[in-house]
Amino acid sequence: MVDNGTGGEWRVFALNLSNGTTAPGWLTAGVGINNRALNINNINKNGGNGKATFEAATLMSQRGALNISSIGSKLYIPFGGYNDTAAGWLVVIDTTKAKILSAFSGAQSSQVVNGGMWGAGGVSIDNDKNVYVTTGNSNHPNDDTTPNSWGESLLKFDSLLTSLKGSYTPANYIALEIGDIDIAASSPIAINLDPATTDAPKLVVFGGKQGTMYLVNRASLPGSLTNRSATSSPEKSLLASPIAHPLNIFGPDSDLRGNSEYAKMRSTPAYFNNGSTNYLYISGVSKTTDGDGGATINSVPPSIVRLRISPSGGYNNGVVGRWPYLINDLSNNNLLFLSPGAPVVTSNKSNNPLVWVLAANVRRSSSLVSPTTPHPILYAIDGNDLTLLWNSSNSWNFWSDSTTWHQNEAQLQVGGKYSTPTIAHGTVFVGTDRIQAFGLPATTPKVLTPTADTYVRDGIYASTNFGTASTLEVKTTSAVGSNRNAYFAFSLNGVSSISRATLRICVDTSDGTSVPLDVFAVSAPWSESTMTWNNQVGLGTSPLNLTPISLNGRQYIWYEFDVTSYVQTQKSSGATAISFVLHSKNNGGTNINLKSREASVNQPQIVINP
């Protein structure tokens, strides 16, 4: 939105990415999107919704992503109206002539119904050039079947929006309207299955604030072209059984209290095919249940779920056949997101899927500008088993001024509610109040694994050796017999130049408490098979990390400690080995568990960049 001197106006611009100048054929001021522009071209009479007004920019929200046709000639821009005081709109821009080409409103009047097109993912466009969009609630808490009022619906158009080609409205749409539980919280995605495996290869899938997923045959949408279905209509999505309803994945399964802090999903699904199986990755948040069967505002896992699309054996309008349906395939029951955006999947063709999620790390109503606001977090999750591989909360930025290396914590900055990362050419771009990029080092690092590791424990275990343990432990408490420290040794043979060195360990905490963890240098030699609490090598005078790493709960996560200066000093002095001890100061007795070199996966390592 730009300031036009009268309260602002929505305008669309096309820029040349190579130099930032306006693209050829486009005005520097952009193309204005307002009611006058629609009326001049008689555009807002498309689809029979000619009575609606495109309200002032202060009442209109352009929240959804922009989407462009496969040949780049049409740009689709969705709008919603704040406070149910404006109809939702979908506007199409002709990119070859830089003008409004067409538009469709979600209602005949701003005062009758809203039908905002809020989904952060914008519209979906299939291979046949059909356009799909979801709409938000109306402001009618009754059975409103007014023609051309399309709140709480999936709509299908031709590429010009000149005709409505199909619709789908959930059977409980009135309850969703009353509760402000928008299905437009989730944008649709079009999916194609192998026609040899199913009678409905052309699908569209979407969710909503209720935490429920809908799977619909987009080639034959069951709704009317003039108005929404009455409440007595059966549920006509593709289902697992004749008595099932659309699949709820973020509980409780209820249409009570599903808006604002009670909402469970505001993200678009991510699709992945591994060569034989069709998967959907969904981000959201589950809620605890109140005494009425509805949700509370208390968030609990899971926050990331994998669904599988079975191509056959499902029900369509109560009849079994070669119909696809959704299966809740896998959940991570430890990881909790707050205000997550849509997941994005990257992979090596059909192998090694990685799921990326950006979470604001605050509730929906929380401020993004308070000095105490937590930083957003970028997560990388293994798409095969949904284990967490990495997050940005304990990673580091490194840069050089040609004379030395510098570092700071790679924490994302303010913002990030329901935002989605962009991945290109091996780099993850994140937009909050600025753009930050995450990627692998430009040079291939050398990865060192421990030559020895163990932990020691006091009290009755003070003479016990734990050198063969697959899990090492660290703990600090006033109770004798409960204190532990963990030791690691690495060989520097074969290491030459060192621009940076990072100690990486895979850790969780037994009770989920967030606690500090320090790394100290060890100067004296020790043996994995003989060291105990009684003969352990003492801690250094000060930790190598100036600020302790803060662990993050009951999920094994990789944490990184910068040990560059120490490793460089040891190498330059001729040392062929280095040792570290991990210790937690004043952690209140929380048990910290670390994968050891004897573990089957995620062994400790030092990453050396030349």
Describe the SSE topology:
Layout: E1 10-12, E2 31-33, H1 35-40, E3 60-61, E4 67-68, E5 74-81, E6 89-94, E7 99-105, E8 124-125, E9 131-134, E10 154-157, E11 164-168, H2 173-178, E12 189-192, E13 202-206, E14 212-217, E15 238-239, E16 247-248, E17 270-273, E18 278-283, E19 286-289, E20 295-300, E21 304-316, E22 319-331, E23 344-348, E24 351-359, E25 377-382, E26 388-391, E27 396-400, E28 405-409, E29 422-424, E30 427-431, E31 435-439, E32 446-448, E33 452-457, E34 471-474, E35 484-491, E36 500-509, E37 516-522, E38 549-550, E39 557-562, H3 564-572, E40 577-583, E41 592-595, E42 605-609
Antiparallel strand pairs: 1-2, 3-5, 4-5, 5-6, 6-7, 8-9, 9-10, 10-11, 12-13, 13-14, 14-16, 15-21, 17-18, 18-21, 19-20, 21-22, 23-24, 24-25, 25-26, 27-28, 29-30, 30-31, 32-42, 33-35, 34-41, 35-40, 36-39, 36-41, 36-42, 37-38, 37-40
Features:
elongated, 610 residues, 36% strand, 6-stranded antiparallel sheet, 5-stranded antiparallel sheet
